[in-house]
Amino acid sequence: MAVASNCQKSSLVKVHDLQPLSEDQSFEFFKKKTFRYDLDGCCPNELIDISIEIAKKCRGLPLAIVAIGGLLSTKERKLHEWQRFCDNMTLELKKDSHLTGINKILAFSYDDLPFHLKSCLLYFGMYPEDYKVESKRLIRQWIAEGFVKEERLYTLEEVAEGYLTELIHRSLVQVSSVRFDGKTKSCCVHDLTREMILEKCEDLSFCKHISGDDPSSLSGIIRRLTITTDSNDFTKCIENSHVRSPFFFANVWQFFIEDFMRKIVTKCRRLKVLEFEAFSKDKLSNFLNENLGSLIHLKYLTFSKKKRLE
């Protein structure tokens, strides 16, 4: 976007803002890449529905369609195999050599970012797959984490909005919805971009995820933690860690949240960000009023009833 704008020699020259492909365009492009060698770009009837579903998961990104279409062009035309690939696409993409080039391209895009934008992009790794996060919420979390630099004449929120806009212009972040004033209301990252982010998060120990796996594998210093499990077996691990920003995305927390919060206020005094998804604060209002003051470093706290997983 910046290169195109700098190439404008007059106001009459229009800069074309390249948009993702539509679902119909994605499917047509997918067919050409997947069935070009043996079926002249035509999709077998028994694979039409699953092909449409796979093309949708590419979310209009030609780079993803080329890679996935090339991968599937080498597989047998059996519905059950394609369904298994679709259901486990993230895992399949990790182990396939077709994506080597894409990973390098995305890694170059990440490496080209200034330092402060790298942290902002990696923060999307805190959210589950296909998660659409509200831009205001994300911006406040960036500020609480200390990612946003002060600039004269601008508020921190305005500076952070500029960060988000730059990530969008670099095509690393996708706009999910727009507000009435044209600003980004919610955003997300493509599955392929998210895989690159998670790899970077692992290499840099930026954040950790706890789902259904054994939480006892957690070790060392953990600054940011995302929990999507319904079990509370990992609470001892958190107590012994140096977590600063835990995110919770499990409904079952309402059954043992008070016990966990007691541990939080006594064991994790340096928390900066505390995020609870799909949870009401009503049950904890008295407890929070009495104990939250001990978390003197806390800059961001959210209890949200509404799920944003889509």
Describe the protein's topology.
Layout: H1 2-6, H2 23-34, H3 48-57, H4 62-72, H5 79-87, H6 89-94, H7 100-111, H8 115-122, E1 133-134, H9 135-145, H10 156-169, E2 174-178, E3 184-188, H11 191-204, E4 208-210, E5 224-227, H12 235-239, E6 245-248, H13 257-267, E7 273-276, H14 285-291, E8 300-303
Q: Any overview of this molecule?
A:
The protein has 310 residues and is of the alpha/beta class. It is globular, with a radius of gyration of 22 Å. A five-stranded parallel sheet has the order 4-5-6-7-8. A three-stranded antiparallel sheet has the order 1-3-2. The two termini are 29 Å apart. Helix 9 packs across helix 10 (156-169). The mean pLDDT is 78. 44% of the residues lie in helices and 10% in strands.
Q: What is the tally of helical segments?
A: 14
Based on the structure, what is the oligomeric state of the protein chains? single chain
Integer average pLDDT: 78
Range of strand content: 5-15%
Contiguous low-pLDDT stretches (5 residues minimum) are: none
Fraction of helical residues: 40-55%
* Counted beta strands: 8
Helix/strand/pairing class, anyone? alpha/beta
Q: Largest sheet at a glance?
A: 5 strands, parallel
How do the SSEs run, as a string of H and E?
HHHHHHHHEHHEEHEEHEHEHE
For the record, the count of structural domains works out to: 3
What's the end-to-end separation, in Å? 29 Å
**What best-fitting shape do the alpha-carbon axes yield?**
globular
Physical arrangement of strands within the biggest beta sheet:
4-5-6-7-8
Rg, please?
22 Å
